[in-house]
Hints:
Elements: E1 7-10, E2 13-17, H1 23-26, E3 29-33, E4 36-40, E5 55-58, E6 61-64, E7 66-71, E8 77-83, E9 90-95, E10 99-100, E11 105-107, E12 112-121, E13 124-133, E14 139-148, H2 154-157, E15 167-168, E16 172-174, E17 178-184, E18 190-198, E19 203-205, E20 208-215, E21 220-231, H3 241-255, E22 261-264, H4 267-283, E23 284-287, E24 290-293, H5 305-315, H6 320-332, E25 352-353, H7 357-361, E26 368-369, H8 375-390, H9 393-414, E27 457-458, H10 459-478, H11 482-502, E28 504-505, E29 510-511, E30 514-515, E31 521-522, H12 528-535, H13 540-550, H14 583-595, H15 599-615, H16 647-650, H17 652-661, E32 663-666, E33 671-675, E34 685-693, E35 696-704, E36 709-715, E37 721-725
Parallel strand pairs: 33-37
Antiparallel strand pairs: 1-2, 3-4, 4-5, 5-6, 7-14, 8-9, 9-12, 10-11, 12-13, 13-21, 14-20, 15-17, 16-17, 17-18, 18-21, 19-20, 22-34, 23-24, 25-26, 27-30, 28-29, 30-31, 32-33, 34-35, 35-36
Helix pairs in contact: 5-6, 5-8, 5-17, 6-8, 6-9, 8-9, 8-10, 9-10, 10-11, 10-12, 12-13, 12-14, 14-15, 14-17, 15-17
InterPro entries: 6-hairpin_glycosidase_sf, 6hp_glycosidase-like_sf, GDE_N_bis, MGH1-like_GH
Protein name: Amylo-alpha-1,6-glucosidase
Pfam families: GDE_N_bis, MGH1-like_GH
Amino acid sequence: MKKHDTLVKLHDDKYYILASSSYADDRVLTLNYGDTFGIFDRWGDIKQFGTCVQGIYHQGTRFISDMELEINHYRPMLLSSNIKNENEMLSVDLTNPDISDGHNVVIPKGTLHISRSKFLQDGACHELIILYNYGSDSHEMDLEITFDSDFRDIFEVRGMERNKRGMLKPPFTSANNHIVVSYTGLDQIERQTNLHFDPEPADIKDNKITYKIKLEPLGMYSINCTSVFSVYANPVQFEPYFIAYDKIRTGMEKSKELIAEVFTDNEQFNNWINRSKNDLLSLLVQTPFGSYPYAGVPWYNTVFGRDGTFTALETLWVSPNIAKGVLLYQAARQATKVLPLQDAEPGKILHEIRSGEMAETGEIPFKLYYGSIDTTPLFVVLAGQYLKRTDDLATIRTIWDNILQALTWIKVYGDMDGDGFVEYQRKAESGLANQGWKDSHDSISHENGDLASFPIALCEVQGYVYDAKIQAAYMAQRLGYNEMAEQLTIEADDLKQHFNEVFWDEKLGTYILALDGDKKPCRVVASNVGHLLYSGIATPERAAQAAKLLMSDDMFNGWGTRTLSSKAARYNPMSYHNGSVWPHDTAIAAYGLARYNMMEPAMRLMQGLFDASLFIELQRLPELFCGFPFRRGEAPTAYPVACSPQAWSVAAVFLLLQACLRISFDGHEKKLTLYKPMLPDYIKQIRISNLRFGDELFELEMIKNEHDLGIHVIKKPEGWEIVTIK
């Protein structure tokens, strides 16, 4: 399952997006940590209006659906609110309105400062509330916090109707200021919201907590509220606010070492890449197999196979440990049986993992779901590139059987009709209809707008399979399986030739989008071609032709590459996959262009996304934005329900930078190569440090001179050669 907001049954798509209002209208702020994320309003409250999506969610369930703070029954006035730069803290500054006793103003406006600081950690939300009296008189007040827990499944919040729910018990107060709300779902799992207040409130009644506070002039009063979310009613331990926050900070400092540091002479570019790094770190979750990037907040705060793999590929040169965690996790979850409801087949790599009541009961098929056509070849691609980058042959040996099983899946199950191409068709009605990265129900069509029939062979998937065979041949050769390496190389060459015979359309001047179930070509110009350049399956001559269309006005809107040409029958710049711009898609195209030595258009794509970032809040590229044409001095048009941060969007800047520097590693040969590197016009100097090869470090500096790019090697591991080709 991928990229869905409000869900209803419509047409052939069981999980169609129905957006009744925009997240942007709600002006929400989000926090995320591991399996927990929160959607708050600017006051730091949780209120249900608009899309009714605010709340704190944990493991696929909304554990807090309402939490509001008032002073003497008045809602405070907002001064400011923001998420701190490293995404760990929501900070809110409030003051009081004129507060009357019914006759007179007893606390004049602006007398009290109310500070709220929230962060998430390990299935808990910690909040510190501080009141400060700046008035010259003492004031008495009631501070009230109301809360509610509806325990709705995330898919239910997003619009799926349910005929029946489990049992919700009313709040009860246990010892030590501890309030418990519990829900037993149809899956027979008990989930609890546990709230603890320090100091003890004056009154706790149902879902309202009241403090009676007297503040002298310049007096201060603080309250610590901790919410812990438990599944299976596990014992709850409440941790003091500052101890929990110290742990967060310590972990963040350690995690910074995971990704190389990039510093340039352009402050705005530095802000973009630092924001991207912090966003990516906030999405990394520690699993038993290493770090795995969750797909995005709010609705994809879980493992997705395709997103995790692309994020690892985008960041491989600056953070190879992410790739290692992704590979080991996916290998451990590789399918071993034919399970039609899960679209699982032996050797297939997962698409999505979900927790929550509806996943446990089977109301949705995504508890462990395999309905994507591309994650399996991309798994092999990532493994080969990881070995080239790190020379970590031990890890490849560990997952070699998984790689072989993935290759077998491509031959046995992926190529459904034996025509040499990999196709998809869901095995059960509950599964996803389209199973490429563009998985909207209407994303694959013919030039007249008719939807393609199944099974469908997407162009980019053949590119991934080609690359997978190339990478598998390299790994086989490194492991000493020379005959296998030769055979895989032959298969890759044959596929490339066959693909270019069938998928190239001379009249269209580019590769077709797909073959439908009747082997009819989908003669549509789409961004999928950029993925063909990324994989290397295009011939140089045809890559150059395809690039012209990719960069034409109907495809490049000034900010990035449209998913679908504006001349296409189904073009809609406000759609999900039929004319919108996705940053990761644009970055992949830029890297592909650079691969074929087309640096000028590659740099234009990088410029477009950089310019877009300058208009977007926090310089955080969202999941996607609308594909309307560039308007000078205006921001790109927001897509109403785009997720942000989204892992493969925030990681795009690293792939763009790799595309312009054309930096590559050969860990076995101990060679770092910069092939005709370039810097965009807005960067004159760049320094890259903490660039890791195992426990050893590279540090490079590049300075743009009048006629070339000067490269200074400040630090490199012993025995390594730095090769610059200008």
